[in-house]
Amino acid sequence: MDLIQSIRERAKGTNKKIVLPEGSEERTMRAADIVLEEKIAEIILLGNEAVILENASHWNLKHIRKATIIDPINHDRKQYFAEMLVTIRKNKGLTIEKALNLVEDPLYLAVLLIKNGDADGEVAGANNSTGDVLRPAFQIVKTQPGFSAVSGAFIMIVPNKNYGEDGILVFADCAVNPDPTVKELAEIAVASAQTAKNIAGIEPRVAMLSFSTKGSAIHEKADKVIEATKLAKIMDPTLQIEGELQADAAIVESIGRKKAPGSSIAGKANVLVFPSLESGNIAYKLVQRLAGAEAIGPVLQGMAAPINDLSRGCSVEDIVNLVAITVNQVNGIKK
Predict the structure, then answer these.
(1) Domains in the chain, ordered, with CATH?
(2) Angle at 308 between CA 302 and CA 310, to 5 degrees
(3) Nearest C-alpha neighbor of 109 from the set 160, 174, 46, 59
(4) 220-231: string of b/e by CB count within 10 Å (b at 16+)?
(5) Of 181, 184, 209, 317, which has the maximum CB count within 10 A?
(6) pLDDT at 334 (0 to 100)
(7) pLDDT of residue 146
(8) What share of the chain is helix, strand, coil (3-state, %, to 5)?
(9) Distance between CA atoms of 321 and 133, rounded to whole angstroms?
(10) What pLDDT, on the 0 to 100 scale, is given for residue 130?
(11) 11, 41 contact by CB (below 8 A)
(12) Number of C-beta neighbours around residue 99 at 10 A
């Protein structure tokens, strides 16, 4: 069984509620139909019920009626969610009039449903930009306790099974933080280990990457990685982590033994934490193109509840898979 199929199988029957704000969009509806058929998740669709049901009939979608459909413009809890939003944003001077307008936006209503416990996670972005998806999430759901940074990880599946965990590695941060601080880098390491466990289903061995291995180069950028490694160990004393390591020392056993003798991580890492967004983003794209790797993501990490962003060019299968990933994140958070 390949990783994606495994992710979908682990999601089945757990009855997590995932809200899809773009509820009448064709790819989203087709994906929801598959998710409901396969029992990957319970689905909440946001949109006009008549339009959604008409689309379902037109596209011969047989399972959409199993979804909960909420019309953001006209539903019986509109005032309740507006007052809730005012309470959350009171320090920003939000008025009830403005809140009543905001809760008609499906992207705001989606995160309010999560905040209120009516939904466990969200998948959006088929029709909306990343900024539009994440803005209400940052304002309302915010980050996990103890976390200040949200980051983006890719699960990389490389053809050469000698690397990572039978060819599976987690790369982060490849999507969000241009120049993370020591604290943010430590948080990315801890969050990426969670992603490795909860989504990839592997026991994480984390390498904090640098151009230096164990003091081979002296520079403030290497020092930042060293300090972040120490802090990550404090944040999670159970974490298997090593830093600073060069990439070859992290993933090639013979080089790991030579450059970092005695390390249980060097040469065996399956989670690679990059010192900056530019290095992480460049690395995942090079591995994807030059090594023919499959890149699954980005998976957003560090949120208090899983909220994941699609590419606007996504396929139906992309949406189904991201719903399954989101369910696995929920299950991991709620353990």
Answers:
(1) 3-142+305-333 (3.40.50.10950), 151-296 (3.40.50.10750)
(2) 145
(3) 46
(4) eebebbbbbbeb
(5) 209
(6) 67
(7) 87
(8) 45, 15, 35
(9) 18
(10) 86
(11) yes
(12) 22
